[in-house]
Amino acid sequence: MNVSLDQYQKLKQRVDRLQREADKAAGARAERLKRLEDEFGCKSIKEAEKLLAKLEAEAKKVESDYQQAAAEFYEEWGDKLGD
Q: What is the predicted pLDDT for the residue at 65?
């Protein structure tokens, strides 16, 4: 298979461009992993996913507790609020 100089240069440019994109993506990934560790103490995506699930469960519990407390408050004090 003979490759012309023009074909070679185009292929090399494409490879160079793709390598730059890969390097940029790797840098962005490393930066995000560093941020996860710095801000949330997670050393991996798996740890971050576990923390997210835990925080979402806690948020649901807090929301449920709030709804229950608000319902009890309005049941006891609603007639005095003058709404």
A: 97
Q: How far apart are CA 48 and CA 41, in angstroms?
A: 8
Residue 48 CB partners (closer than 8 Å, separation 6+): 36, 40, 42
Residue of 67, 13, 25 whose CA lies nearest to 59: 67
List own/partner pairs for 7-15 with CB under 8 A and 24 or more apart.
Answer: none
Q: How far is CA 73 from CA 50, 61, 62, 83, in A?
A: 34, 18, 16, 14
The residue with tokens 């979402």 is 56
Tens of pLDDT along the chain (83 residues) come to: 677 999 999 999 999 999 999 999 999 999 999 999 999 999 999 999 999 999 999 999 999 999 999 999 999 998 888 75
